[in-house]
Design a protein that fits this description.
The complex is a heterodimer of chains A (110) and B (126).
Chain A (H helix, E strand, L loop, with lengths): L3 E4 L2 E3 L6 E7 L12 E6 L6 E5 L3 E2 L7 E6 L2 E6 L8 E7 L5 E2 L3 E4 L1
Parallel strand pairs in A: 2-11
Antiparallel strand pairs in A: 1-3, 3-8, 4-5, 4-9, 5-6, 7-8, 9-10, 9-11
Chain B lengths: L2 E5 L3 E2 L5 E8 L7 E7 L6 E7 L4 E3 L7 E6 L4 E6 L8 E9 L12 E5 L3 E5 L2
Parallel strand pairs in B: 2-11
Antiparallel strand pairs in B: 1-3, 3-8, 4-5, 4-9, 5-6, 7-8, 9-10, 9-11
Classes of the chains: A mainly beta (110), B mainly beta (126).
Amino acid sequence: DIVMTQSPLSLSVTPGEPASISCRSSQSLLHANGHYYLDWYVQKPGQSPQALIYAGSNRASGVSDKFSASGSGTDFTLKITRVEAEDVGVYYCMQTLQGRGFGQGTKVEI
Amino acid sequence: QVQLQESGPGLVKPSETLSLSCTVSGASIFGHYWSWIRQPPGKGLEWIGYIHYSGSTRYNPSLQSRLTISFDTSTNQFSMRLTSVTAADTGIYYCAKLGSPSSGFLANYYWYIAVWGKGTTVAVSS
């Protein structure tokens, strides 16, 4: 099984400042097709999760360009350029290479 | 616009079977992947499994021996059954539709969780 580990588990950010969340997998998420099999989701308070990023670095439909993601091999990063109050929530990475598996989540608060 | 609605018992006794359904509106079961995810109280997300309209399934290895995901095209619903439940199966259960990019190399090749239901709370208790 692929184990996903996020850090930090909690992040307090000043509005307007950037934020960065790390996600590490226990084995490479590089598929033979050259794409990374990793997604990012956010669960805002009281809501269902929603997709932010798929296949390593592609923004899902309707997602603000203030969200970006990158990475290679086993190390991935989600970046928010300027955190706003509406970005508060728990951010999850999820591997899609072997079945599916989530990281523990990173709670972002203002 | 695709909408998903979970339904099922809010309370299940230990050792019994949990059965949940997800009603899909705004899309047909055909041509897509459908998934279940759960969230224990105060904890993170756990992927349960998915089913393709062809009938193929993939389950979380930790649940595989107790889990069945199926669909009913006549009602445009898909369902999950989890046998021999314990308190560890308590939580919010979400149904979801997997989506794929509409163009590019990954179109119809890469599937991510595009639409989520609002979730239904299940408690396992005697």
